[in-house]
Amino acid sequence: MTVTRIRTAAVLAACALVVGCSDRPRMATVKGTVTLDGAPLVAGTVTFESPGLRPATAKIVRGELTEVSTFEPNDGAPVGSHRVAVAASEDAASAVVADPGQATPKGSYMVGKSIIPRAYNDPATSKLTVEVTPGENVVELKLFSTGPK
Fold first, then answer.
1. How, if at all, do strands 136-143 and 27-36 pair?
2. How far is CA 74 from each of CA 28, 43, 68, 117, rounded to the nearest angstrom?
3. Which end of the chain has the lower number of beta carbons within 10 A, N or C?
């Protein structure tokens, strides 16, 4: 009888650990679009930040948010309010590369020039916010060449 009780207690304890001890927040699917002056932003990245939570990141591919991930590929973003940052730059191939023997390259080295106002690169200055709710979320991030509005 005591062996059965010990086994039962062990099974219940293991189930409680698996079900109730996750330190991950509730996640939700996020998809949507990113435009600059009404035209799809060709490429870039988006970061969703919420205090106390791991940020989620997404790729921008031809104006569409793809691969929104926080802990695992395509697992979405934590449910809650997020400040948003967007980064988009020209291809690194167009960046200035140092000449051999030159101490300091002129221009940016191996980083393409930003094609959006730099204020969008920081969630504190982008003025972009997203409320992620349980289920599927569709967001529309509208950027302007004149900067955040």
1. parallel
2. 10, 18, 5, 28
3. N
Contact (Cβ atoms closer than 8 angstroms) between residue 44 and residue 61: no
CATH number, domain of 132, equals 2.60.40
The answer to whether residue 14 sits within a structural domain is no
Query: Could you tell me where the beta strands, DSSP code E, fall in 4-146?
Result: 27-36, 39-40, 43-49, 56-61, 64-69, 77-78, 80-87, 128-132, 136-143
pLDDT digits (tens, 9 = 90+) for 64-107: 999 999 999 999 999 999 999 999 998 755 444 444 554 444 55
In a domain, 17, yes or no: no
Is 63 within 8 Å of 41 (Cβ atoms)?
yes
In angstroms, the CA 116 to CA 142 distance is 11
Largest CA distance in the chain: 82
Report residue 43 as tokens: 């490429």
CB-based contacts of 81, cutoff 8 Å, min separation 6: 50, 129, 130, 131, 132
Give the predicted TM-score (pTM) of the model. Answer: 0.74
In the chain, the N- to C-terminal Cα span, in Å, equals: 71
